[in-house]
Amino acid sequence: MARITLQNLAHSYFPSPTSEADFALKEMDHVWDDGGAYALLGSSGCGKTTLLNIISGLVRPSHGRVLFGDTDVTDAPTTERNIAQVFQFPVVYDTMTVRDNLSFPLRNRGKDAAYIKARVDQIATMIGMEDRLNQKARGLTADAKQKISLGRGMVREDVNAILFDEPLTVIDPHMKWELRTQLKSLHREFRHTMIYVTHDQTEALTFADKVVVMYDGRVVQMGTPEELFETPAHTFVGYFIGSPGMNLFEATVRGSVAHVDGHAVSLGADYGAPKGRVQIGIRPEFAFMTDGPGLPATVRRIEDVGRHRIIRADVLGTAISLIAPEGMAVGADMTRVAFAAEKINVYADDWRVSPVGAQERAA
Ligand code: ATP
């Protein structure tokens, strides 16, 4: 297993890039801890696959270096990186039995028969295939074949990392949950460095200790699910994580007060005087309809989604969403919206502003 370091890494598919827009990956410096479970999350085209392929050695970065532990692997081919990969679609040998498919990576590396049998039995149990080990892969469902691919990805104990590229795409929704849970427990047990690419926030948040959110070729935040929820580092994270995403208002901020279209909104901390395009962000979970003080709001629609209701409202020309817990009444006299001050985040040019003194306190 290995710590993975991305040093001044950037990538352009053009031979002579002339501007930042020519880069599929903008310059980044990151250390991914040995034994960590990471999810690479972002919408289509943000650079997830490019980054994964650079780590696996399928793509050579046009700038910077990749290190596994202290070894520079930038120019090492995939075969020399000692990694396992699981792709979107199953890669199995149809004419082989499930056992032979799972044994393959171990036999290739000359492991002894007793070890192979024990290890394959263990993995087969974890992927729920122990009763089908002697069956040929041909004729199995796509689900079952992908489980074999996942098992094969995890069968070697000595890999530097296991890379998953949207591995649950072909799996039916119920099984997705089960396999995600199994992957998580496999990670807990074996502590491999795992990198899991997905555009699905639920997959990312349930699988990973750290979620790496990408936007337009950049890593905009690397954080725990809680950090992404509480303190999105970029407005994209606020919008992309959560359902519905974070509400944003154009504002001016002075100290611990924001002004939205002339209305004062108390903030939970002192933010100084941020410059640029300033916005305040508040998650739907922390905004409430009220008959007390707040910003004037018009309710447009209320959607009952089971455990709670989503209120869609207009506030000073901005469409926002609020989450009202089951049983909370929304009376006709509730014509204002109020926010939990300590849950408001402040953004300048899309990046989160730290409260004054927060960095010194954290240091
Ligand atoms: P998706 O979820 O759709 O696979 P992604 O986040 O994995 O998207 P990438 O496939 O890494 O994104 O693509 C990032 C950018 O690089 C996109 O603009 C894409 O068009 C471009 N790109 C990807 N592969 C190539 C290639 N082989 N040649 C040229 N441009 C490419």
SSE topology:
Elements: E1 4-12, E2 23-32, E3 37-41, H1 48-56, E4 63-68, E5 71-72, E6 83-86, H2 98-108, H3 113-126, H4 142-154, E7 161-165, H5 173-190, E8 194-198, H6 201-207, E9 210-215, E10 218-223, H7 225-230, H8 235-240, E11 247-250, E12 252-254, E13 257-260, E14 263-266, E15 278-282, E16 287-290, E17 295-304, E18 308-315, E19 318-325, E20 336-339, E21 345-348, E22 351-352, H9 358-362
The chain binds adenosine-5'-triphosphate.
Major sheet strand order = 6-7-8-3-9-10
CATH fold node name of the largest domain:
Rossmann fold
CATH architecture of the largest domain: 3-Layer(aba) Sandwich
The best one-word shape is globular
Instruction: Please give the CATH class of the largest domain.
Output: Alpha Beta
- Stretches where pLDDT is under 50 for at least 5 consecutive residues are none
Bound molecules: adenosine-5'-triphosphate
Structure classification? alpha+beta
Helix content: 10-25%
Query: What is the straight-line distance between the termini?
Result: 30 Å
Number of helices: 9
Description:
There is one protein chain. The protein has 363 residues and is an alpha+beta fold. The protein has two domains: 219 residues, 3-Layer(aba) Sandwich (Rossmann fold), CATH 3.40.50; 118 residues, Nucleic acid-binding proteins (OB fold (Dihydrolipoamide Acetyltransferase, E2P)), CATH 2.40.50. Helices cover 25% and strands 33% of the residues. It is built from nine helices and 22 strands. A six-stranded mixed β-sheet has the order 6-7-8-3-9-10, sandwiched between helices. The protein is globular and about 75 Å long. The mean pLDDT is 93. The structure holds adenosine-5'-triphosphate. The site of adenosine-5'-triphosphate (ATP) has 11 residues, from helix 1.
